[in-house]
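Please review the protein record below. Let me know how this chain folds according to its tokens.
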Amino acid sequence: MKLCAVVPVYNHGAAVGAVLAGLRSFGLQCLLVDDGSEPGCARILDDLAAREPASCKLIRLTKNGGKGAAMIAGMHAAGQAGYSHILQVDADGQHDLTDVPRFIELARAHPDHVITGYPIFDTSVPAARYYGRYATHVWVWINTLSLQIRDAMCGFRVYPLESTLALIDGTPIGQRMEFDIEILVRLSWRGVTVTGLPTRVRYPLDGVSHFHIGRDNLLITWMHTRLFFGMLGRLPMLVARRLVRP
């Protein structure tokens, strides 16, 4: 397994340096994807990449396309560089990077699985965001006919690139906050096992959130609707899969 970290960044200049340092402490090669950040953050990213050019690469998207667009760009770059897996980490410092070795160990044991964080929240999580997640949990369970995906919204995860790139190169996937959810459902439809790993999460270290209540909730609602009708077309296959699995 050859793994690098991919960090999508949009105006998280105050936190991304600590995130990068945490990842580098485990000897990881890192791809920073600048998703059209403002000039101040862009300069910080330039400086971070210039300090360690052998271990930190910067990919710059000239226009903000959303988290999904940044992740897809990072995945393609990692695949072209010969990596077999990527570790996705958010740039705002909400993830407990001391769990990185646990994610890598589980990915090595199950190289064909997606390893995704199952969040253990502290008191910093907004109540509306915490309880609002359950609507997505229920729709994910409906759209996969399975309880395998315990949380589809945590951005701390390891992807096997072969199966993931095959999906994103052949199927349109949401480009913004709906990306994390949709890609897990669609990978599950393709028979990829999604394995959860409990991990502590806090909201967020630099106090910046790019979740737009109106726009992103509409995009997520439309995504769940599309996935529901996609599930109906796959219903015989999904039911048969549930029957043969223990």
The two ends are 28 Å apart (CA to CA). The longest strand covers residues 114-121. DSSP finds nine helices and seven strands in the chain.
